[in-house]
Amino acid sequence: MGLHCCVYLVYKQDWLLNEASPLSAAVMETIVANSHWSLSSKDQAFVTLTTNDSYAKGALVLGLSLKQHRTTRRLVVLITPQVSDSMRKALETVFDEVIMVDVLDSGDSAHLTLMKRPELGVTLTKLHCWSLTQYSKCVFMDADTLVLANIDDLFEREELSAAPDPGWPDCFNSGVFVYQPSVETYNQLLHLASEQGSFDGGDQGLLNTFFSSWATTDIRKHLPFIYNLSSISIYSYLPAFKAFGANAKVVHFLGRTKPWNYTYDPQTKSIQSESHDPNMTHPEFLSLWWNIFTTSVLPVLQQFGLVKDTRSCVHVLSDLVYTLAFSCGFCRKENVSGAVSQLSLGEIPAPAQPFVSSEERKERWEQGQADYMGADSFDNIKRKLDTYLQ
């Protein structure tokens, strides 16, 4: 509804409210409220980021889950050059804007910062969300999140609103946060990244340093945990989840294994994974993710040739077990970040062994999930110690 129409409605409001029927007043209030809502929602957006075709699958499911719960805000996805052209076209079917971010070719201070601190590549790409000044307010969501209910009320919050991180609650988790795009803030973040870096090597450490007063200044900027429910928290504090989990609005699939890395049986609607996987403590969330993927994302991937076997539609071959091949940016082989994950049918392949960063290995040790038979074996640890003692 346009601005001219809103003005006309306000002009006619007295006449409508003077009608004998009480319904007229209610109708008028609804129309005026909806007129304001439609105007304000156009300059607000949910924003996510994908750096390869694997995470693009997560972004597609996230976008469709927002639409499924009738969001009125625009959907924006930031992509890097590693996302294939076919996947970009698939993203355009779900998102209102698909924006290419190439820090190496940006020609601004982000490029200079990357040259100084190359380990912050993905972080600098994520910071680009502050440059989306065509929007007055945004909610950033990582591509490994899933929306379970309408969350448009987040736009009533101020910058920087976020939920506590389960590992260190005095820090916020940067998987879901409310922010206000600003060139000034963007440049300040780049300066901080260049001068100090990030205490955790990623965007969360940098953002917590920049918004350092979050923990103590304004409790209204602390989002309830149900807006960023960590799968790891379900695993570590199951009683609380049983008491409050039914109110969850967003689930965040933290950890190495993402929903698209599991094996899914469409006949039994069951999911297979490694033992002691925190995400499997409550597999219903994974089932919700896969339901959206199989019903809405898979046909789009087929349309753009991202699934080679056109017979892979689960409605046709519902008796087959399939899995999405692991091809995220952490694979051992170089230059696979642009590769397309294919849908593998029939026999379940052995899971690929991903490269694990030092930060991820630290998280696994803290969770009691050290790779004692592999990288964390006694021989490997002894060999590493020997290099320092020589």
UniProtKB/TrEMBL annotation:
Pathway: Glycan biosynthesis; glycogen biosynthesis. InterPro entries: Glyco_trans_8, GNT1/Glycosyltrans_8, Nucleotide-diphossugar_trans. It catalyses: [1,4-alpha-D-glucosyl](n)-L-tyrosyl-[glycogenin] + UDP-alpha-D-glucose = [1,4-alpha-D-glucosyl](n+1)-L-tyrosyl-[glycogenin] + UDP + H(+); L-tyrosyl-[glycogenin] + UDP-alpha-D-glucose = alpha-D-glucosyl-L-tyrosyl-[glycogenin] + UDP + H(+). GO terms for biological process: glycogen biosynthetic process. Its cofactor is Mn(2+). Glycogenin participates in the glycogen biosynthetic process along with glycogen synthase and glycogen branching enzyme. It catalyzes the formation of a short alpha (1,4)-glucosyl chain covalently attached via a glucose 1-O-tyrosyl linkage to internal tyrosine residues and these chains act as primers for the elongation reaction catalyzed by glycogen synthase. This is glycogenin glucosyltransferase. It comes from Bos mutus (wild yak).
